[in-house]
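Open question from group meeting: does this chain pack into something compact, or does most of it stay loose? Before anyone orders reagents, we agreed to write out a predicted structure and look at it together. Recording both the input and the output here so the notebook holds the full record.
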Amino acid sequence: MEAEGNSASQSGVEKLLSTPDMSAQDAEAMEALGRKGGQSQDEIELNALKERVKTLSSEKTALEGRLKKLSQSKKTQAQAQAHVLFFGWALVWPSSASSFPPRLPPPFPKQLLSKQSTMAAALCRSPSLLCRRHLLIRLLSTHTQLQTPPPPPTTPADLSRLKSSIRDAATTPDALAALFLSALPHPAFLADRPLFALSVRRLASAGRRDLVASILSSSLTALPSPHPSEGFLIRLISLYSAAAMPDHSLTAFRLVKPPSERALSALLSAYHDNRLYDRVVQAFNTLPAEVHIKPGLVSHNVLLKTLVASGDLAAARAVFDEMPQRAGVQPDIVSCNEILKGYLNTGDDAAFHQLLKEIAGPERHLKPNVGTYNLRMTLLCARGRSFEAQELLDAMGARGVPPNRACFNTVIKGLCNEGEVGAAMALFRNMPEVPRQNGKGVSPNFETYIMLLEALVSKGVFDPATEVCKECLRNKWAPPFQAVKGLVQGLLRSRKAKQAKELLMAMRKVVKGDAKEEWTKVEAQLSLLLADKKA
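Structure tokens returned:
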């Protein structure tokens, strides 16, 4: 009886494989169906699709009847096959695909399966939805086999525990994906942007992009209707980008109906963030005409950033100058900052200062933002004028532009490079006191600590270096081993063995993962020095 059920399921899959691929022209024709419903040929094609849905629904019902006769161990797999068969009329396989993927998607929660009839009826009423479902199923085709998800959370406490398990660094990638899928039916989980980003980041870091594709494509079908919102699809574009999956970002972009400039700028950013600079230019030049939208200011700024990053400053300046006439878009301060960055990279100080004058002049009349000030301070530090950069940093608050962490790091780095570690340390200690709109100061990050620690050790200023190192370790950040080694050796030379031993013990607690073995070797060398000093 099990063999009979499996055979029936396999025959249903083979029917799907025999369905011809749908080209982009076919997809456009399907959308045209919704607009030309009065033509006889369109009515014939639409009726044929409706009949196909009825046929597949009947086959699904028959398969579900066979499910009752299967053993419990086979039930989950057959249910997934029935789900794929039901939606398979919109499935498109690449022409190069020779067989069905060897592993089927995981079963969807019962809450989602119960919505199938409603979704199918909506697709029949609007052929334009067919094209969106076609792309959605294409995303679903990337599913991998996952371990059985736990039961969906039913109470806020259940959901809170599930989220904690996802955040737990000890959770394996497969377990994380299973937990993620089990939480999808909960609306509060779908709205948790930070947890989505954390899950994608951890799975991508583990090299499990198959699981990234599974959880994100499943999140589409977890929505309460077959219409993913523009905002949710833009989230997917960015999440796929963060996982280094720009092709999936493009697929998500094509699901946005109607196409929007926001979605275009998100796709361009996805290409830029993955250093696909040629694809940014190509998409900017071709996609707007293809989907009938006009690139706006944000999309132009992404293009400027891309051209500067690729080293084509001349093309960036040409786009910048032509934006008002050709696109009807006035460059803003972000546009100006991108061009300033290009001049900074090429060392063209004269052009840099000329554009600064234009920004404040009557021609553009723009207010410099924190990015503009940071570029100015970067230029000053690069020219060995870090104290002037510090004066500019001090003046920012009075001009209504509070400095951020990047500004402090720029000036601290400049001072350290010039050997002014005392001034750098004083600026570091002043960071928490800087007034801001929310009343809080600026917190240093890992980069801040490392710049200071390395500069202080290099200068032989060990007491402030110890203070910086301990604060870094309290934040669970392990400094570079070479800097810590130099600091410990300096403390031992200064007859401060107790402080050196405390640093070694603190490092031992913070160092994790593969670095632990390497640190053990460094610590063994330093322990020998420490023993010699005691002797």
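Observations to bring back to the group:
The chain has a mean pLDDT of 80.
The CA atoms of residues 249 and 407 lie 32 Å apart.
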